[in-house]
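fwd from M.: "can u put these together and see what the complex looks like"

so here's what she sent:
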Amino acid sequence: MKEKEILLRLVEAEIGRLPLDDTEPQGLYAPIRYILEDGGKRIRPLLCLMGADVYGGEPEKALPAAVAVEVFHNFTLLHDDIMDKAELRRGRPAVHLKWGESGAILSGDAMLILAYRILQNGTPVYGAGKLPGLLEVFNRAAMEVCQGQQYDMDFETCDRPVTRDEYIGMIRLKTSVLLAAALEMGAVVGGASDAERRSLYDFGVNLGLAFQIQDDLLDTYGDAETFGKKIGGDIAAGKKTFLHIAAMEKASAPQRDAILAPGDIGEKLPRVRAVYDALGVREAAETAIAEYFGLALEALRRAHPQAGRLAVLEEYAYSLMKRNK
Amino acid sequence: MKEKEILLRLVEAEIGRLPLDDTEPQGLYAPIRYILEDGGKRIRPLLCLMGADVYGGEPEKALPAAVAVEVFHNFTLLHDDIMDKAELRRGRPAVHLKWGESGAILSGDAMLILAYRILQNGTPVYGAGKLPGLLEVFNRAAMEVCQGQQYDMDFETCDRPVTRDEYIGMIRLKTSVLLAAALEMGAVVGGASDAERRSLYDFGVNLGLAFQIQDDLLDTYGDAETFGKKIGGDIAAGKKTFLHIAAMEKASAPQRDAILAPGDIGEKLPRVRAVYDALGVREAAETAIAEYFGLALEALRRAHPQAGRLAVLEEYAYSLMKRNK
């Protein structure tokens, strides 16, 4: 079994041990079980365990931190789905459709508290001395994720064009810092130095940027069968993605109109994609992904004097960028 | 100046120092400032400071814990107002009406994280050794408040009658445990023993129960002018308060109908109040308040060997029960 598979089993087992099944009231805990059990890729907890492993900390010792980050991440998905009025999450009805909006708000709140509880209850596992450092990393990232979500909402409703820098700043907060925090928390458990922690954090931030821009790219240019969800969702919703912003920077007036005009997805997707193609937007995205991924690998190499210790993380980072879904 | 006034100034000053004014994005932080600046009674932070004072801890040392609890409490109000579709909070438009529901959900999330950040940032004030204990008390209470809110929603929609025990269990979670936790966190900062902490916690739980039942009573029997809000709100909304539940336990079939039949507030309030009067519901509530307040004072006397140290808390507890708003 590959290293990643072993760590994934640890994560799933630990999530399975959360006391959600028979804790009352079930109206509060059933939605939490529901969103956690259909897991997604578990990227953040895996990064956390790998972060600990780099510095020779047993990955098991980072499990509470890893699961706390995963619970937090799923909390953000739950609340984001309410805000976005999303109907599906990982192919199943979103929590707010199944349990109502009030139930979804409250279960999300309980998840956020649960994340802190898991972190605190893990003290015997990673030692009380590590708690303040873990909390500091977690708290800062948690607040930044909220800032990122606010910028995302602000951008969607503002009239002026969003710049590429603003977009990068937004996805840095909304997506990247939590990947980076997961890694740094692993490094804290593993006993990394401050400089090593920072390098691993930088690796996470840049990996996250590459990952999010790739997500934007796949949504427009992915293969429908392997991507697993409908292509063109962002274009249909008029989302201000990296591709949209890069296109609007260079578009002529008629091209802008072609991007902005409404239409059903069957007509709008090829129309907008044709403009993107004409403007070289796909290549711009691929260049940005390659650049951020390059920065990520550079930061990773600084994260530990022994290159060998970084192998699992590096391989996992490559696998994330080779994904087609 | 009375002791309580001095502590209140400390609390207001500390809340005023929260970095909310110029932190971006303002869409996230302006609602937090808005709900915190129009403060209410600041009961929880005052109890926290008084709890520290009982054990000779300087109240200033408990300020981060006190403010964390107050920020958490206001977070629950913000999200509860969305769930209840409440339009006013302390006489002003609720956050979700002013900033929209998505903004209110997200700002509430950020407040919850802010509460943890304040608690963590206070480490230099109360000493790192106190953090795990404070977090444990805070986390348990925070989760219980969510459980209480879930039971409250469950009770409002369930068809069967809610028992008095179930109601007490619900308000214990929804209201009392946070008062108790505020006191216990103060005791932790003050250096109380485990037994003293528990006694002060019990004082808070029982005080909270007395306070909430008094709230139910004032909503139906209070004086409109001094109460500061409309009398009969609970009856108009058909809320399952202590009075409602006590009445339904004893009511005849026609009396039940009289309680449950809809109607505008001008007609429904006197009609339901007449049934309550006939069933002695007011007296039942007053008895319950007196009993819980008595239990609170008993627990308070166990909380410290020196009776004199408890004077400020005892006086404040009496002032809370003598309120008419």
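replying to her w this: The domain at 193-325 of chain B is CATH 1.10.600.10 (Farnesyl Diphosphate Synthase).
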